[in-house]
Specification:
- The complex is a heterodimer.
- By secondary structure, chain A is mainly alpha-helical.
- Chain A has a domain of 158 residues: MetI-like fold (Orthogonal Bundle), CATH 1.10.3720.
- Chain A is 80% helix and 0% strand.
- Chain A contains 12 helices and no strands.
- The longest helix of chain A is centred in the last third of the chain and has 34 residues.
- The radius of gyration of chain A is 26 Å and the shape is flat.
- The two termini of chain A are 50 Å apart.
- By secondary structure, chain B is of the alpha/beta class.
- Chain B is built from 9 helices and 10 strands.
- Chain B is globular and about 55 Å long.
- The N terminus of chain B is likely disordered.
- Classes of the chains: A mainly alpha, B alpha/beta.
- Chains A and B meet through α9 and α10 of A and α2, β6, α3 and α5 of B.
- The structure holds adenosine-5'-diphosphate and magnesium ion.
- Adenosine-5'-diphosphate (ADP) binds next to β2 and α1 of chain B.
């Protein structure tokens, strides 16, 4: 059926020719439509089926911890990443090597064992050492919840990745830019903050966005310490009711909804940034 | 005006300047050069002969391997010198313009005025406007660099340097990245500066400009000063064979 008008069209034009036109169905983002359809179908299941709804009411409250842990880990990682990223480019031999050691070291360890190491060994030992002093001097003790221990571990790991992002972003700014800044008498610091960093942000923001999404997913690892975020609630629900299908269905739905809408936002932001950039040398 | 001393005191004084990259690349070898106040020195020479490196050693964008550089009485090669203060007195114009693409023309011009010269927003904008008039494009104050032609961008770069009220201006092939029809508008601005008595060191391949503007012409080859003197003399009868060969290659 579809071949009929096409053949007529060809006939009218005469010989077939190479064309730069692409039909709408070739360029249409089918994948997006498919994803939306799947999410709608999942939402429909949860809204209409009792067991799914039960799973939802038990698991969804974990959103709060998932989101706060994500925000905390991202913020701390951002600070670590900025300091370590600029540290790697520092003139100071100590900061350069400390930053480099941290980045290389951390990136070589998988997240899960690092979470256990930090939560069960490093934090207890450090707090013990600290608290004997703090207690004696101030009558106060330092405590770190398991949620914070795991969150800090995530921040340590993503801080190392972000350090590379910052370093790469800063290095992506042509050296002529800082030379122009310095030649006008701006100090190193002023040149960095007013000339280099604002331009580096173009290269930094998109991968930071990806890391935000990655952190969000990796907060599911907090479950190994019993933190009641989404994954842990899903585990508990499934284990206590034997409704594994419903439990992990809802868990997946929540993560998908969050990550997919975040990447949509991110791609809109990126599109805007490249549009602003058009025509720039 | 004689060939080795300008009208006033020395604004720039270079002694025994040597720059070696990576221990093996001898970019500049034992160069002595004085630039008097109000003098215009034009540097010519083949590509890779060390012209940019000499210029960049003057404001310490490149750290000399050996030798001393004095600017306005300050020895920039002395570690105790506050190099940022000296740089504020030395304007530099680059081949690639190096405007800040994320800032408007006016912001490009006011940034260092405010941060280095501590001028208020109003003062900085007023000076910025004056310099934009100076280079002939006051109407572009709120444009972004990418919206300007190459010639306009280079004129903004000149205005940005002038807004600091520098004592010396360094130009590193300011017209080499320009389309031919834009070369003149930039050279005209530079000639205007010459007539105002600005001390200038200019690296360029524009021999017409050298003839019209230079008090002294310096020919550099392989990091050494081969010949130095009034442009008419150097052009008319170069004393060195190397100089002659260079002019033969570039002059029609
Ligand atoms: N940062 C650098 N590292 C290594 N070599 C360099 C560097 N800058 C310049 N050079 C070398 O020094 C020599 C002189 O360069 P330059 O001063 O740029 O020459 P010109 O400006 O006369 O073309 C060239 O051989 C160049 O390759
Ligand atoms: Mg050069």
């Amino acid at each position: 059926m579809a071949t009929e008008p096409r053949r007529v069209q060809r006939g009218r034009r005469g010989a077939t020719r190479v064309t730069d036109e692409r039909p709408w169905w070739d360029t249409f983002p089918w994948w997006g439509a498919i994803i939306v359809a799947i999410l709608l179908w999942m939402a429909w299941q949860i809204l209409t089926k009792e067991n799914y709804e039960l799973a939802w009411t038990r698991i969804a409250p974990g959103l709060r911890l998932t989101i706060t842990s994500t925000l905390q880990a991202f913020t701390i990682a951002l600070i670590i990443g900025m300091v370590a990223g600029m540290g790697q480019l520092s003139r100071n031999v100590v900061s350069r090597n400390v930053a480099r050691t941290y980045v290389e070291f951390i990136r070589g360890i998988p997240i899960l064992p690092l979470i256990f190491t930090v939560a069960l060994i490093v934090v207890p030992e450090v707090t013990d050492a600290l608290n004997s002093r703090l207690d004696a001097w101030f009558g106060w003790e330092f405590k770190l919840s398991f949620q914070m221990r795991a969150t800090v571990t995530l921040a340590l790991i993503y801080g190392a990745y972000m350090a590379e992002i910052f370093r790469g972003g800063i290095q992506s700014v042509p050296p002529g830019q800082s030379e122009a800044g310095r030649s006008l008498g701006l100090t190193r610091r002023q040149t960095m903050s007013s000339v280099v960093l604002p331009q580096a942000m173009r290269a930094i923001i998109p991968p930071l966005g990806n890391d935000f999404i990655a952190i969000l997913k990796d907060t599911s690892l907090l479950s190994v310490l019993g933190v009641l975020e989404i994954t842990q609630r899903g585990r508990q629900f499934s284990a206590s009711t034997f409704k594994f299908r419903e439990g992990y269905f809802v868990v997946s739905f929540i993560y998908l909804l969050l990550t997919l809408s975040l990447s949509l936002l991110l791609s809109l932001l990126e599109r805007r940034m490249t549009r602003d950039r058009k025509g720039q040398r | 005006m004689t060939s080795d001393a300008g009208p006033g005191a020395n604004m720039i004084s270079i002694r025994g300047l040597t720059k070696t990259f990576d221990k093996t690349i001898h970019a500049v070898r034992n160069v002595d050069l004085d630039v008097a106040e109000g003098e215009v020195v034009v540097i010519v020479g083949p590509s890779g002969s060390g012209k940019s490196t000499i210029l960049r050693c003057i404001n310490l964008l490149e750290i000399p391997t050996e030798g001393t550089v004095e600017v306005d009485g300050f020895e920039v090669t002395d570690p105790r010198t506050d190099i940022d203060r000296v740089r504020a007195e030395v304007g530099m114009v680059f081949q690639q313009f190096n405007l800040f693409p994320h800032l408007t023309v006016m912001e490009n011009i006011t940034l260092a005025q405010r941060k280095v010269r501590d001028r208020s927003r109003g003062e900085a904008r007023e000076m910025g406007m004056r310099q934009l008039v100076h280079v002939g494009i006051p109407e572009k104050a709120d444009a972004y660099p990418r919206q300007l032609s190459g010639g306009q961008q280079q004129r903004v770069a000149i205005a940005r340097a002038l807004a600091m009220e520098p004592k010396v201006m360094l130009f590193d092939e300011p017209t080499s990245a320009l389309d031919p029809e834009m070369v003149k508008e930039v050279l005209d601005v530079m000639l205007e500066l010459v007539s105002e008595g600005m001390t200038m060191v200019v690296v360029t391949h524009e021999m017409g400009f050298a003839r019209a503007a230079a008090d002294r012409l310096v020919f550099i080859d392989e990091g050494e000063i081969v010949e130095i003197g009034p442009p008419d003399e150097v052009f008319a009868n170069p004393a060195q064979e190397r100089t002659r060969a260079f002019f033969d290659k570039i002059l029609y």
